[in-house]
Amino acid sequence: MRKKIIVGNWKMNTELNEGIKLADSINKHLINSACNATVVLCPPFTHLASISETIKGGSVFVGAQNCAFEASGAFTGEISAAMIKSTGAEYVMIGHSERRIHYNESDKVLNKKVALALNAGLKVIFCCGEILKEREENRLFEVVKRQIEEGFSNIDIEQMSNVIIGYEPVWAIGTGLTATPEQAQEMHAFIRKLITEKYGNSVDNNLPILYGGSCKPSNAGEIFSQPDVDGGLIGGAALKTEDFIGIIEAAN
Ligand code: PGA
């Protein structure tokens, strides 16, 4: 049985004091409840160290939303995987569609980030997913296959034990549209098959594959009950303690 994982992607929201308050309230809530899921909060970079301190010894983990594609040096404005790790954060999201679309992050660049993050000792939450046009043209499997194959090229079987995959159909992110449980299951099973072909059963049986895209307390339970859906990547609903807790409870 794979443990459910719920990741809150805060995107570019909350100022530092608001972020600390939100993390503290989620953490306190979970300390006082019977929660079976692993919960990861991904606030903006500026909050990582403070939030890691706030939740120390608690029931949640901290992650970043991105990292640089080089290890160090003259890359003004960038944040390296090792810097993220030094804040106390343990996870990093790589390849979110907003990074692919607004910052033109290619599969090649994302592959470099995956390798650097794993080498720095972070767990990687690797996002993939098709845009609406690709689904309408029935190219969704071809697109996700390319994203996975290129994203993990040269990543070895041991490193895969620190990888989580997030399937986020781009048309469902922040739109209120959600994939049906059947659509999510179909793609998750496909991703698991790709991983088996490359790494064998020992990796794919343990690999968590999360669904992301307009998850809410009201729809999360049905999606998470699918056999290959191991939890969720939550955007908008991760910014309100009540909604986020509702989604975590749906994973129990
Ligand atoms: P959403 O975002 O839950 O607001 O659709 C999900 C994500 O982008 O990770």
Give the secondary structure arrangement, pairings included.
Elements: E1 5-9, H1 16-31, E2 38-42, H2 48-54, E3 60-64, H3 81-86, E4 91-94, H4 97-102, H5 107-119, E5 123-128, H6 132-136, H7 140-151, E6 163-167, H8 181-199, H9 201-204, E7 209-212, H10 217-224, E8 231-234, H11 241-250
Helix pairs in contact: 5-7, 7-8, 10-11
The structure holds 2-phosphoglycolic acid (PGA).
Keywords:
single chain, alpha/beta, eight-stranded parallel barrel, 8 strands, globular
Describe the structure.
The protein has 252 residues and is an alpha/beta fold. It has one domain (5-250): TIM Barrel, CATH 3.20.20. Helices cover 42% and strands 15% of the residues. The chain has eleven helices and eight strands. It has helices at 16-31, 48-54, 81-86, 97-102, 107-119, 132-136, 140-151, 181-199, 201-204, 217-224, 241-250; strands at residues 5-9, 38-42, 60-64, 91-94, 123-128, 163-167, 209-212, 231-234. It has an eight-stranded parallel β-barrel with strand order 1-2-3-4-5-6-7-8, surrounded by seven helices. Helix 1 links the parallel strand 1 and strand 2 (38-42). Helix 7 packs across helix 8 and helix 10 packs parallel to helix 11 (241-250). The radius of gyration is 17 Å and the shape is globular. The mean pLDDT is 96. Residues 9, 168, 173-174, 212-215, 233-237 line the site of 2-phosphoglycolic acid.
